[in-house]
Structures are given as C-alpha cells and as structure tokens.
Amino acid sequence: MNFAATLRIALLALRINKLRSALTMLGIIIGVAAVIVMIAVGNGAQARVEDQIRSLGSNIIMVLSGSMTSGGARGGSGSQPTITEDDAYALNREIDEIQAAAPSLRGSGQVVLGNTNWSTVFYGTSPEYLEVREWAVIEGRRFEQAEINGAGKVALLGQTVAKNLFGDASPIDQVVRVNKVPLTIIGLLDRKGQNMMGQDQDDIILMPLSTARKRVLGSSRFAAGRNVGSIMVKVKDGANMAEAEARMRELLRQRHRLQSGQDDDFYVRNLSEILQAQEASSRVMSLLLAAVASVSLLVGGIGIMNIMLVSVTERTREIGLRMAVGARARDILTQFLVEAVTLSLIGGAVGILFGVGGATAIAELAGWRTELSGGSIVLAAGFAGAIGIFFGYYPARKASRLLPIEALRYE
Amino acid sequence: MSEPLIRVEGLTKDYIMGSNVVPALRSVTLDIAPGEFVAVMGPSGSGKSTFMNLLGCLDHPSAGSYWLGGQEVSALSGDELAAIRNRKLGFVFQHFNLLARTSALDNVALPLLYGDIPAAERYPRAERRLSQIGLAERIDHHPSQLSGGQQQRVAIARALVNDPQLVLADEPTGALDSRTSVEIMALLQQLNREGITIVLVTHEHDVADFAGRIISFRDGKVIEDRPNAAKDAAAALL
Q: Of all helices (H) and strands (E), which one includes residue B52?
C-alpha cells in the first residue's frame, strides 16, 4: 500500500474524531510552545549577560580602596583612599600577565553647555582605560601625552551625554563646563549599553587623571596627593587570571608596606569571573527551563499514546475488517503510526506558532529579552515527531498484532 | 467434474482454553467445485464458524490440509494469507462491517487499496461494482445514510471488487428483515449464476433453502452433505 493512501486513511480517521484529535494535540502544542518559549527566554538571559561581558571588556580585575585601621578602629570599605596612581603604574610595569592598568578618579557633577545642562559622572583616568575597557573613540581623537601630563582641558564624551547636550550635532571641538571648568570635547565614545547593574555606561565623561585631580574635583580628599578611587586592570589573553590576581595582591601589599597577618587595605575584584559565574548560572537556568518544558512535551506524548490505545480498542472491528480484505500486519502498523505522527506533527506545527508568538509577546509585554533560535524550533519539531513515533509505536504494534478473526468478532 | 475450487482433507481445529483442549473442528474432508452455492448450517458451537474462518484464511488449522484453487494455503504465513484474502476471497458479514463516515465508493474500493491497485483504476472498478448491485446513485453516501439492505449490498460490492474466486458470507441476512433478506439472497443467487462460488453460513433453513447444496455441522463434524433444489429468491419476491 502506498504512503499517500496511508496518509489519507490517517487524516480521515483524525477528522472523524475532531474534538478528540484536537485535545490530544493540545498536549503536544503546549509542550512544543513551552520548549520554544523557555529556550527563547533562557537564550535571552544568556545573551544579556554575554553583552555585559562584551561591554565590560574581557579579563578585567578591579582594585578598589579598602578599609584602613587607625587606632584600633577599622573603617569600612573605601573609608580611606589607599591606592595611588603609582600603584597602577607599578602593576603595569612589574606584572607580566597584565596588559594594561588604568587608575581612575570618579566624580559627579553638572555639565553645562550654553543654556542646557546635564548631570553625569566623570572619570579622570589614563589612556589605558580605553584599552582596558576595549572602548573605541568613534569620532575625534584620544588624549595626547601633553594633555595627560599637563592637566589638559579636554574630555571624551559618552553617547548619552552627547545626545542630551548636543542632540544629533557633532560635539567635537565644542566647549562644555564640568563643575565650572571649561573642557574641550576632543572625542566621542562608542555605545556600550547597560552594565550588569543596569546602569547606563554611556552616561559618562572621561578626562585626563591630572585634569580631574587638579581642576575639577578640587578639595576632595580622595583627589589629594596621588590617590585614586580604583584601578582597572586587563589581564593578557590566555594568562592565568588567578595567578595574575595573586601577584597583584602581593605587589600591592609590598607597596603598601603591610605586615604579614595584617589585612589587605584594598580589594581585588575579578569582574569577569563574576560575570562568567552569572553566565554559567543563566545557562543552567535556561537548561532547567527547557528541561521543565520538555516534561510537558513528554506528558503530551503520553496523551497521544493513551488516545491511540483507546482508538485501537475502539476500532478493533475496523482493524479486523481491514485485515480480512487484505491488509498485512505492517499496513495496520503503518496506518496507526502515521496517525500518531500526524497528530504530533500537526500539534508540533501549531505549537511552534504559539511558541514564537508567546516568546514575542513576552518580549513585548514583560520587557524580557527573548532570543528565538532556528535550532530550538527545529529541535522542538523533531522532538514532536519523535514523540509521535515513540508513543505511537506501542498502540500501532498492538493493533497490527490483532488476530483477524478475534478482531472481527470483537463487540 | 472439474478441479475443485476448495479441497479440505482432515481439517482439524483445536482451541486451547487454559489446560483444556477444546476441539472445534474434527477432521473434516470435503470438496467444493467452482460455481457452487453452498449453505453451511448447524447450531452454535457446531464448528461451522470455525470452518468458515479456515476457508477464509483468517485462521490456521491445527491439522489437515486446505487447497484453494489448487494452492495449499494451510501452511502460509500471515502476510501470504493476507495476500490470498486480498486477491482470491470476498467476505460478507452479518453486521456489514463498513467503515463509518466513509463513502460507499471508498468502502468498496478498500480491498483494492491493499492490493496496490493504482487510484486511477480503483475508483472505476469500485463504481462498476456499485452500479452492478444497483447503488450507482449512492456512491457518495456514508453507511449511516443507507438502509440495512443497502449497506449489505455495498458490503457485497466490496466483496466482489477484487474479482474473487470465492465469496464467503457469514450470516449475511442475520441483521435484516425477511423481505430484505430475500432481496440479498436474490442478489447472491444472481451473482452465483454469473459464475461466482459462494459459501454461506446460516442457521436459518429459509435462507439455506436458496443454496444448491447444504452441509450441516454438529460437534465439529459434517453430519449431512446434500444437494438442494434451490428456491428462486427473485421469484419469491414477486
């Protein structure tokens, strides 16, 4: 018997019991849709973390001021400025694993341009900062050595600040006032997006460290001497991060003249590691979501088996008749298998539509990031077909093994 | 006498019920010639249904041989028996056994589907058989839209569509009123006159009386095998 005829018989049988077929498919529809939506949500979360890693830069270690103990009283973290720009230069110079180390001083203030203004944060830093963050200047130029040494009145603008002050016009060579100090914009930074805390990384102004220290920050004690707020370090690709971290800690302890047994007066944070941990956990989460969704697909498959078993029992006489007029065991097996696979494939197709729709709706309504992948759709469809075969086989085999006389006599 | 269409020798069937062996058919030997119209009679449990199932290649005998059209079929596999049923046999059942929600035409064409006959040939053949039994206008009707007599005629058309050597009818009038029964018997008689061999199982003497030979079973054995002056069903309708 040819396949087209088998398919027609199967479709006819499904049409005869429309409601039952639809309800059976519902299990598969929900299962497939759930798998697609869950994979899309999981992938979205993962993609978000990956974007953050990309925007932070890779292999980043932060050094922050720690607490200082004076007269037995221990201050909280960052209570004292303990690290200096010379620490940064020493790290850069003395540790092979380090590609670049950028000291930075952070401040916030009002940026004024003519009659508009904007409140933002600014960083006084060295040119290595752009290298560490893998941040490109898309318009204009970087700092020149003379500007770094001589507290040049220049600044690089983040996209958000540029947008708010200049709209779509070019900010290059314009003069803005940061805390009343006039700075000439020499470059525009590339867009970075949000960081892992959800902060806008483009809402920023960069200026030479000396400019921030001498001209903009004024009397803050963090800006006094050669203190800096933090040092951002980029470890070379392929170098051992843990070893680099240990050597940094050792060097800083030496430089700060800490006795063994004394606590560090600085913090070393491996930001890349934190993000990687977050990525790993979001990967586990998306696997978990997909696994839970697969359970509903499995339940849908069992639903198909259940209905096919009922159907075989109900149609015992029909099977007997088909055998009497010449159907072989494998014709009966094929017919019921095709019915089960047809149910699951149609269910799968509808499920894909619902899944794609659901993922889009979640992105629109809940504002979550979802990523639909062709792979997950193919996977879900293939899985649905496989479930049809797997759960349809037992009832179909049962049908094909009926004895013609007993099937014909069945009441 | 020509080569018999059916020859059974020592045909035996035992059913195993738990530890008991229940003999249903005990060493039956007989011949049926082509073109005969045979009625098989007997009370319940006499073995007549078992005999029919064996003739219809629906079951394997426990012992003995069965030649159908010169071919020994008692030792064939399930698939080979399916092929024999498909090409050489036609079945008519008491409860018609038509596929529900399927047109008369599709019902009649069903055996051809399993015989790998191409669709272009299937439907003209099925249509020809339906018009032969006077249901040309009903080819698109589903069984539920047909009377009992019409349904049985569709079933007869289905039994004939593969040009079988033998039609086996198991109580074909059992679910019909007496006038419709006679109509069906008239149709079978007409087909028999056209050369088709028919074996009919019945427990009604009135129905058996339309056949040309009556074989009676009791306790798994043939107790009587006699020719019968067949009553003309067409005349009985007048």
A: helix B48-55
Count of domains for chain B: 1
Q: Is the ipTM value over 0.90, yes or no? A: yes
Separation of alpha carbons A84 and A90, rounded Å = 10
Q: Which residue has the tokens 């589907």?
A: B113
Q: What is the CATH number of the domain that holds B38?
A: 3.40.50.300
Q: How far away is chain A from the Cα of B83, in angstroms, using its nearest Cα? A: 6
Q: What residues of B are in the A interface, CB distance below 8 Å?
A: 53, 56, 58-59, 78-79, 82-83, 85-87, 91, 93, 97, 99-102, 110-111, 113-116, 119, 158, 162
Please tell me if residue A314 touches chain B, with a CB cutoff of 8 Å: no
Q: What's the pLDDT band for A355 if we cut at 50, 70, 90?
A: very high
* pTM for this model (two decimals): 0.72
Choose among B155, B150, B137: nearest CA to B99.
B155
Between β-strands A137-140 and A181-189, what pairing exists: parallel, antiparallel or unpaired? Answer: antiparallel
Q: Which helix (H) or strand (E) holds A61?
A: strand A60-65
Listed in sequence order, the residues at least 6 apart from B93 whose beta carbon sits closer than 8 Å to its beta carbon are: A321, A408, B155, B170, B171, B172
Chain B CB within 8 Å of residue A327 CB: yes
What stretch of H or E contains A110?
A: strand A98-113
Give the nearest partner residue to B114 out of A1, A16, A403, using CB atoms.
A1
**Using one digit for the tens of pLDDT, what is the confidence trace for A139-190?**
888 888 888 888 889 999 899 988 888 888 888 888 988 888 899 999 999 8
- How many angstroms separate the Cα of B210 from the Cα of each of A229, B27, B48? 114, 27, 18
Identify the CA nearest to A224 among candidates A121, A85, A89, A71. Answer: A85
Q: Decide if B131 is inside a domain.
A: yes
Which of B83, B85, B119 is facing A324, going by the closest CB pair? B85
Put simply, the chain A residues between 209 and 268 with a CB less than 8 A from any chain B CB are none
Q: Which residues does chain A have within 8 Å of residue B116's beta carbon, measured at their own beta carbons?
A: 1-2
Other CB atoms within 10 Å distance of the CB of residue A172: 16
Q: Residues B179, B183, B187, CA angle at the centre, nearest 5°? A: 165
Q: Maximum CA pair distance of chain A?
A: 104
3-state SS, residue A138: strand
Neighboring chain B residues of A16 at a CB cutoff of 8 Å: 100-101
Q: How far is the C-alpha of A84 from the C-alpha of A104, rounded, in Å?
A: 9
Nearest CA in chain B to A321: B97
Check A403 against B59: CB less than 8 A apart.
Answer: yes
Residues in chain B closer than 8 A to A318 (CB atoms):
97, 99
pLDDT one-digit tens code per residue, B108-160: 999 998 888 888 898 999 999 999 888 888 889 999 999 999 999 999 999 99
Residues of B with CB below 8 A from A5's CB? 113, 119
Helix A3-16 vs helix A18-56: angle between axes, to the nearest 10 degrees?
100
Say which residues have a Cβ less than 8 Å from residue A12's Cβ, sequence separation at least 6: B101, B102
3-state class of A182 per DSSP? strand
- CB pair distance less than 8 Å for B100 and A16: yes
Does residue B134 lie in a domain region?
yes
Packing angle of the helix pair A271-314, A329-365 (nearest 10 deg): 140
Of A247, A213, A215, nearest in space to A228 by CA: A213
Give the type of residue at A111. Answer: V
